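Quiz preparation item.
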C-alpha cells in the first residue's frame, strides 16, 4: 500500500507539530515533568498520535533532541582565529535556538539528556577538534576542555542567568573565552 501525497504531508506536519511541542515542553519542564499528554495537548493532537510516531517518551525525547550545532569549517581559516570563531559561533547558536538551552537543562538533570549531550559532543565537537589540534589522539580531551568553557558560559548566561554573564556584550564574551578555547584547541600539550 502506497501512502498518498496528502496523507504524507499531513503526517509530516503532525510529526513536526509534535516535535516542536516536545522541544518546548522538555525545555520548559525538563524530561521528568514533561508528559506525553501535555505535549499532545500543546500540539493539538491526541496522545495516541505521539505514541504512534515515537513509541514512548524516550523515543520522543531522542527525536526532539537531535541537535546539529552546525560547527563551521575551521580548518581553512588561520589557526590563530579558531578560538574566536568557535566562541562566536556558539554564542550565535545559543542566542538563536532555545532548544540548546532546553537540552542543557535536561542534560544536567536527566540521564537520557546527558547521554544525548555526550553524543552531540562526541560526534560534532570531537570531530572538529581532531581536525585542528596538533595531535588528533588528544582530540577527546581537548574537546572536553572546549566544552567546559562553552557549556559553562551557556549555563551561566542562558540557564542560570547570572547577571554579570548576562550583561556582558557578545564581544566581551568572545574576548574572554576565545584565548582559552584557542589554547585548548591549538597549543602544545602542557
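Solution:
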Amino acid at each position: 500500500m502506497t501512502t498518498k501525497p496528502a496523507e504524507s504531508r499531513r503526517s509530516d506536519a503532525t510529526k513536526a507539530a509534535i516535535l516542536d511541542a516536545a522541544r518546548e515542553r522538555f525545555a520548559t519542564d525538563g524530561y521528568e515533568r514533561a508528559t506525553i499528554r501535555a505535549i499532545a495537548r500543546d500540539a493539538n493532537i491526541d496522545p495516541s498520535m505521539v505514541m504512534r510516531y515515537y513509541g514512548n517518551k524516550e523515543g520522543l525525547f531522542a527525536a526532539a533532541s537531535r541537535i546539529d550545532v552546525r560547527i563551521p569549517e575551521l580548518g581553512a581559516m588561520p589557526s590563530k582565529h579558531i578560538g574566536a570563531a568557535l566562541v562566536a559561533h556558539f554564542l550565535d547558536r545559543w542566542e538563536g535556538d532555545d532548544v540548546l538551552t532546553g537540552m542543557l537543562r535536561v542534560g544536567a538533570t536527566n540521564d537520557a539528556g546527558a547521554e544525548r549531550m555526550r553524543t552531540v559532543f562526541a560526534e560534532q565537537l570531537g570531530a572538529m577538534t581532531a581536525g585542528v589540534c596538533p595531535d588528533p589522539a588528544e582530540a577527546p580531551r581537548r574537546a572536553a576542555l572546549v566544552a567546559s568553557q562553552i557549556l559553562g558560559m551557556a549555563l551561566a548566561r542562558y540557564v542560570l542567568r547570572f547577571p554579570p554573564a548576562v550583561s556582558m556584550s557578545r564581544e566581551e564574551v568572545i574576548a574572554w573565552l576565545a584565548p582559552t578555547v584557542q589554547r585548548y584547541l591549538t597549543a602544545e600539550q602542557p
